[in-house]
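On to our target:
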Amino acid sequence: MTGDDETSITISKQADVILAGRRAKPILAAFELDESTVEEVVLVIHELASNIVKHAGEGTITLVPTSSDDHRGLEIHAEDSGPGIGDVDRAITDGYSTAGSLGSGLGAVDRLMDEFEVVPRPDSHAGTHIVAKREFRTRARSQKPFPLTFGAATRPRTRGDPNGDAFVIKRWGDSALVGVIDGLGHGRDAHTAAAAAKRYVTSHFDQSLTAIFRGVERVCTRTRGVVMALARFDWSQETISYASVGNISHKVDAPVPFQFVTRRGVLGNDAPEPLIKENEWDPEYALALYSDGVRSLWKWDEFVHLVDEPSSTLAHRLLAELADENDDATVLVVTRGSR
């Protein structure tokens, strides 16, 4: 681990934890990130530095900027000579702590970063070396008006219960990412799984679809698992890229309707990687994504009188007319919206 741009901070007390976060901010400012992403990375640095103080007394945080053709990123190395981590999987489970703290530190690091690894120390059996990586895509400004609108409607199986479904809508530059997530089963455990997946997707929305699915697979390992479909629109190319694992359904309204590939599996339970398919996309097309709490035997023609309504109105009407009372249900719609 060498590099002229890397920054190392010795950590031995709480003031050093704050200092490590401050030393990161000029590095992150050079990436021109939004405020929430900067705060997420600083939170990770604080968590890793706090763990050094709590468990080892002293160590170092090293920040290493990285770059490739279309991404820049940051590696965070946390090293100490403390007792080490005996059970990594347990240590990154929210609520687990050996130091009497809230125990969400390494779990948060795992969720917020692209990669998280505890590296074996070849020189000693003692100590911990954690490497956490996050990449930041270069943000292009919008080149032309974005012609699509997005709407979603969701509800739990029983009113007042936690919803095991979730949806994602993110827009930036000439791009947008939308998706539907369904935690297995119903109730609080399904909600916990869907929420973990949604947090990861919304924190990494500008990563590749393959990377997002890998991350959700990782953060959902300690949940009952989810199924998920994501669609990315790139309006500079007028394309859609689609990826899905599990039984999230989709329906395309186009002159020649087409189907995307869905792979069987459950994210968090050794799921296969999705098969990503790219198609041209005309703004006059429409797309619906929906969980298995929505009946699949319907046609766009049945709702032709609503295609000029706002996407959110169309999503709520589809949910009202097609949702099954015995399951959580979610509909997400992409259309050109109201004329």
The first helix runs from residue 14 to 29. The helical segments are 14-29, 35-55, 88-91, 105-112, 187-203, 209-219, 311-322. The chain is about 25% helix and 30% strand.
